[in-house]
Amino acid sequence: ETGVTQTPRHLVMGMTNKKSLKCEQHLGHNAMYWYKQSAKKPLELMFVYSLEERVENNSVPSRFSPECPNSSHLFLHLHTLQPEDSALYLCASSQDSAGVDREDGYTFGSGTRLTVV
Amino acid sequence: DQQVKQNSPSLSVQEGRISILNCDYTNSMFDYFLWYKKYPAEGPTFLISISSIKDKNEDGRFTVFLNKSAKHLSLHIVPSQPGDSAVYFCAASPYSGAGSYQLTFGKGTKLSVIP
Q: Which residues pair with B93 in a beta bridge?
C-alpha cells in the first residue's frame, strides 16, 4: 500500500463508548497530524507529531487522546464523546517541515466519518 | 478569528473557461501557501504551492498568484474541465520556525464546472 491509510472509514459510536481511529503512512514521512473537519468550518489542526513526539496540541479536549507508537502509525483514542464531536477526522503526514523545502505539502488520508449518537 | 478566508463558498464556471478561486489571509507571519483539492469521500490532495519569494507559480493548467502586500492569493484554472469540480482549500503557514508544522486552512470553495 502507498500513501496514507485511515481506518475505519465510517464509525458510529455512543457517548459512553471507547473507540480508536487508526492512521498509517507508507511514505517515509516523519511528521503526522490529526485534523478535524466539521460542517461549514475550516479544517482544524488537533495534534502534530514529529519523530514520534507530540509538538502541537491545539487545546483539544481530553476526551481525544492521540498516540504515535512509531513514525508510520498514528492513533486517535476516543472516549465519552459528545454529539458535537461528529465530524470527518483526517490524518496527514509530511516530511519534517521546519526549514525544509515542502513543495509537496501534506499527504492526507481519506478520513474517518465519525457520528456520535 | 479566521486567519485564512475563502469568501466564496461556491463557484460555477463553464467548461473551457477560466476558474478563479480567491483566498485572503491576515497573519503576516504566513509565507508559504498551498492549495488542496477535495473530492467527496476522499481526503484533500495537494495541488500547488507558493512561497513568499515568488508572486506566481505555474503547473500545467493551474497557476497560483500571490500578492503579499494585499495578503491575497488566487488559484487560476485554465481551461476548466468537469473533472476539476471539487472543493478547493487554501492553506497557509510560516515557512520555518515556530508553527511551521501547522497549516491553517480556509473553509473551502466548491467549484462546479458545467459541461
A: B32
